[in-house]
Amino acid sequence: MVDVSVVVPCFDESEVIGAFHAAVVAALEPTGTAFEICYVDDGSRDGTVERLRELARADARVRYTSFSRNFGKESAMLAGMRMSRGAAVVLMDADLQHPPELLPRMLELHQHGYDQVVAQRDRSGEGAVRKAFSRAYYRLVRRFMEVEVVDGAGDFRLLSRRAVAAVLSLPESNRFSKGLFSWIGFDTVSFRYENAARAAGASKWGGRRLLNYGIDGLLSFNSRPLRLAVHSGLWLFLSALAYALWIVANALLDGVDTPGYATLITAIVGLSGVQLATLGVIGEYVGRIYHESKRRPHYVVRETERDASGDPAADR
Ligand code: UDP
Ligand code: MG
Fold first, then answer.
1. How far apart are CA 304 and CA 28, in angstroms?
2. Which segments cross the bilayer (predicted)?
3. What's the CA gap between 93 and 82, in Å, rounded?
4. Are 27 and 269 a contacting pair, CB within 8 Å?
5. From residue 25, how far is each of 66, 128, 175, 217, 273 by CA, in Å?
6. Closest residue by Cα to residue 271 from 300, 230, 304, 240
7. Is there a contact between 16 and 93 (Cβ–Cβ < 8 Å)?
8. For ligand 1, what atom is nearest to the CA of residue 10?
């Protein structure tokens, strides 16, 4: 029986993985809980798998799955939750930005009956620009999304077994976990901790990647952008109608010739802009439907700890 599974997505983390492992073991061993650590190597190219093999050989509590290529953190977390066997699951990053010292506290809160325990970071270890963007983004998200997403409440959280089951029961391929965790509900408690800078290596979230992640998050949880498109279309139509009436009235009452090359061009260009933007919004959703309808698996596994220990065909 395993009390806690620690699920760790790793992408090019060979520099920190050893220190991370030692820190987690040091934090959990004194609590006397039976734990396992499920590492998911997300197609790393820097020898992270070799590190994981070594760890698994040295420590029976280590299990791992290695992907055939980089499938993204969301897929890695999914794989980790699927392989986990613990009565509770903790999701955390490998780069020591999620302090393992907090684990006992999370377990304790879980024992008080909470299904989700969220460690909420402040943004002290981050650059000013990124901080500002994150703030603005979450403000936007709060206005748009039907589920509640809190700034700083990242993926460092503990989930009870039934919460994990609920997350795993959601079949979508476009996974935005922050939204999923909020969608499943259950009693949730959160506490704050001070953000630490990365222990080694670099963040894989450049500007573009974050932007795409942000768009995904906005679109995967609601259809309000579509509603917005409908609204702007309606308003434009109404104002065009009013303007047309005004022109007609003017012509009839005052006998004014209808001047209007500039008006015409402005109207055409303006409307085309709105139409294109709207098409774009629709396209985003259609693209998502297309993506979902392919029903592809979220990842492809290259190797697990069972391959490393003995029979290589055991898992296939
Ligand atoms: N990660 C992953 N796949 C990816 C990108 C990141 O599994 O494609 C992992 C990474 O190894 C780390 C965690 O996700 O454990 C968070 O990544 P990172 O530290 O780069 O993100 P940040 O802390 O800057 O948000
Ligand atoms: Mg990080």
1. 24
2. 228-249, 261-286
3. 17
4. no
5. 21, 34, 30, 34, 57
6. 240
7. no
8. 11
Angle between helices 207-220 and 261-293 (to 10 degrees): 80
Please give the order of strands across the beta sheet that includes 301-304. 188-193, 116-121, 157-160, 88-91, 4-10, 35-41, 62-67, 301-304
> Ligand 1 — pocket residues by CB below 6 A?
9-11, 13, 42, 70, 72-73, 76, 93-95, 97, 203-205
pLDDT for 287-301, tens place per residue? 888 888 888 899 999
CB 195 within 8 A of CB 122: yes
DSSP state of 3: S
pTM for the predicted model, two decimal places: 0.76
Q: Which atom, in ligand 1's list, is nearest to the CA of 13?
A: 11
pLDDT, average across residues 149-153 = 65
Q: What pLDDT, in 10s, does the model give residues 174-230?
A: 778 878 888 888 888 888 887 666 666 667 666 777 777 777 777 776 777 777 777
Cα(225)–Cα(263) distance, rounded to whole angstroms?
A: 28
Which atom of ligand 1 is nearest to 76's Cα? 7
Contact call for residues 98 and 119 (beta carbons, < 8 A): yes
Cα-Cα-Cα-Cα dihedral sign, residues 114, 119, 122, 127: negative
Which residues lie near ion ligand 2 (Cβ < 5 Å)?
A: 93, 95, 97
What is the tens place of the pLDDT at every residue in 267-289?
A: 887 788 778 778 878 888 888 88
ipTM of the complex: 0.94
Distance from residue 95's CA to the centre of ligand 1 (Å): 8
Distance, first Cα to last Cα, the chain:
25
